[in-house]
């Protein structure tokens, strides 16, 4: 109850009654204290199924290439002591971002992969009917990789039959 001193106009009471809020919170706390142990006890040993990963048959999976170079000492990205890509290093191409390949292996693997996708789609005529089924090549180039390494990767995948080549880049923070 508010006590008003002085004689004057009535002002609204600005105190908040928190008693109902505390009552509701205590009731919810009691409910959760009872419900959580009951829920935990009712769950027996949970068995999560283990499924083998399979390649999608309806979704086109684009070919991902990473183009980098060795460091000045000739070490690659997975080697211990790798100092980072160097403009003077040898070209390194990673097929699907994991498997290091040479130029000849890149051509052969890209051709076999594209041939498998075209065959699965029903041949060249069938895949041309739905252009979204034609896979693309996405290249992620290291900032220190010379253009000749990237151009060599583009040449090999286009020679293998991939019509579209795109680049993946990291956005630059405009604030510095």
From TrEMBL:
The main location is membrane
Give the protein's recorded name.
Biopolymer transporter ExbD
Determine if Metal-binding is one of this entry's keywords.
no
Subcellular location field? Cell membrane
Note the InterPro entries from the entry. Answer: ExbD
Task: Cite the source lineage.
Answer: Bacteria, Pseudomonadati, Pseudomonadota, Alphaproteobacteria, Sphingomonadales
Keywords assigned by UniProt, alphabetized = Cell membrane, Membrane, Protein transport, Transmembrane, Transmembrane helix, Transport
Question: Where would you find the membrane-spanning parts of this chain?
Answer: 20-40
Q: Which family is this sequence assigned to?
A: Belongs to the ExbD/TolR family.
The source's domain of life comes to Bacteria
Q: How does it sit in the membrane?
A: Single-pass membrane protein; Single-pass type II membrane protein
Q: One Pfam match, by short name?
A: ExbD
